[in-house]
């Protein structure tokens, strides 16, 4: 027992240190979210304000994230990056009689520790595993917490490889050399709009570089072979189903609890934000097909998106409408003979979507247009 509590203290000390170090290094994240129209994020979409399955009072609220009960043994961790960068993405946990499952490694060890502490407020059940919904840094650079605590980490089989290739490759790299092509693109921008988009892109890539270099990367040790999904996970009275879908990153998995109509969607669903499509393996047609599948699920489904407030089917409908609107505008430009690179900067946000957040133009709207052009066989 003494050994256990000493071990626990060591872990807590290392987490506290990580948290301080992380906060000391996190000023650059400020720039990132200023660029992303840093607005306080509500935890729930207005449509769910009266939903009796969702607790109106959070279990815990630290500003940067709050945790809320959204079902029987089901909890959502909802981030508000305007108040801190410990978590950044959303996540959650599932608690049955026999075991618990954590969702997301978050952007920092402090974020993963926060969610674990919240789990321990409601259950002492052994943690069967944690799961990264995909490889992106804001969902995975806090993974070291799981390694330090002996918690198995599940993810799509390609997640470990993509973390190493994307973020491991940045560690120790020459920052100036790494960023110089992006600076060149700013200098070469032909319009004010294009220059603004390239500057925003540079700010975000700089963040990714800094986070990668200030994190000890930790890799999932329970690869999920996509050909063997869906996979049922029995937690004792709560059955989760892990399913793989195309769209956002080539490594996306969701956790569904069909008995309660709850879905932890990862970044296959952005709630109140334009979908982020920059990834080399993102596919616009695949993603739209996935959203069509989400829309076919029960009308009372609760979705925990990767970013933004917990939502219902209206959140899925908005994402589909945003893709439709980008396609409509891109098609007109395509028909007018405009090249993709030019069209990518010229989408106009309609009045009805003016409150939809753009994470960064070159991570979301721009690549959606160039990927649509590619699907049409044009550049
Ligand atoms: Zn992502």
Structural notes for this entry:
This protein has 379 residues and is α/β, with parallel strands linked by helices. It contains twelve helices and 13 strands. Strand 4 (91-95) and strand 5 (100-103) form a beta hairpin. Helix 7 (175-187) packs antiparallel against helix 8, helix 9 (284-296) packs antiparallel against helix 10 and helix 10 (313-335) crosses helix 12. 47% of the residues are buried.
How would you describe the shape?
globular
The profile of the biggest β sheet is:
8 strands, mixed
The ligands found in this model are: zinc ion
Strands side by side in the biggest sheet: 1-2-3-4-5-6-7-8
Q: In what range is the share of β-strand residues? A: 15-25%
Distinct helical segment count: 12
Q: What's the N-to-C terminus distance? A: 64 Å
Radius of gyration: 20 Å
Percent range of helical residues: 25-40%
- Average pLDDT works out at 91
Low-pLDDT parts are: 1-37
Structural class: alpha/beta
Secondary-structure element order, as H and E? HHEEEEEHEHHEHHHEEEEEHEHHH
DSSP strand count: 13
Layout of strands and helices, then pairs:
Blueprint lengths: L1 H24 L1 H9 L24 E2 L3 E7 L2 E6 L11 E5 L4 E4 L5 H14 L4 E5 L5 H4 L3 H5 L4 E4 L2 H8 L8 H13 L4 H23 L7 E3 L6 E4 L4 E6 L8 E5 L4 E9 L13 H13 L5 E6 L5 H23 L4 H4 L21 H11 L4
Parallel strand pairs: 5-6, 6-7, 7-8, 12-13
Antiparallel strand pairs: 1-2, 2-3, 3-4, 4-5, 9-10, 10-11, 11-12
The structure holds zinc ion.
């Amino acid at each position: 027992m003494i050994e256990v509590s000493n071990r626990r203290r060591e872990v807590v000390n290392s987490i506290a240190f990580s948290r301080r170090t992380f906060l000391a290094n996190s000023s650059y994240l400020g720039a990132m979210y200023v660029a992303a129209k840093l607005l306080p994020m509500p935890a729930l979409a207005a449509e769910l304000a009266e939903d009796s399955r969702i607790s109106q009072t959070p279990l815990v609220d630290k500003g940067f994230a709050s945790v809320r009960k959204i079902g029987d043994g089901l909890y959502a961790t909802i981030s508000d990056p305007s108040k801190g960068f410990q978590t950044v993405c959303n996540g959650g946990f599932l608690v049955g009689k026999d075991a618990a499952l954590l969702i997301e490694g978050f952007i920092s060890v402090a974020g993963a520790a926060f969610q674990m502490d919240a789990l321990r407020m409601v259950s002492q059940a052994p943690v069967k595993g944690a799961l990264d919904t995909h490889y992106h840094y804001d969902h995975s650079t806090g993974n070291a917490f799981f390694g330090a605590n002996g918690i198995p980490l599940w993810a799509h089989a390609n997640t470990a490889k993509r973390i190493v290739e994307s973020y491991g490759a940045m560690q120790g790299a020459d920052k100036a050399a790494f960023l110089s092509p992006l600076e060149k693109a700013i200098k070469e921008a032909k319009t004010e709009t294009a220059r603004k988009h390239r500057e925003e892109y540079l700010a975000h890539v700089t963040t990714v570089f800094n986070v990668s270099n200030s994190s000890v990367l930790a890799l999932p040790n329970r690869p999920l072979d996509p050909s063997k999904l869906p996979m049922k996970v029995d937690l004792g009275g709560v059955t989760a189903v892990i399913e793989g879908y195309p769209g956002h990153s080539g490594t996306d998995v969701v956790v569904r609890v069909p008995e309660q109509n709850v879905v932890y969607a990862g970044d296959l669903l952005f709630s109140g934000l334009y979908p982020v499509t920059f990834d080399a393996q993102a596919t616009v047609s695949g993603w739209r097909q996935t959203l069509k599948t989400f829309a076919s699920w029960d009308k009372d489904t609760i979705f925990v998106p990767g970013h933004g407030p917990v939502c219902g089917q209206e959140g899925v409908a908005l994402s589909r409408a945003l893709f439709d609107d980008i396609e409509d505008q891109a098609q007109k430009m395509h028909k007018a003979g405009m090249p993709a690179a030019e069209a990518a900067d010229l989408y106009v946000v309609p009045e009805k979507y003016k409150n939809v957040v753009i994470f960064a133009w070159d991570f979301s709207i721009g690549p959606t247009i160039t990927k649509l052009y590619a699907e049409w066989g044009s550049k």
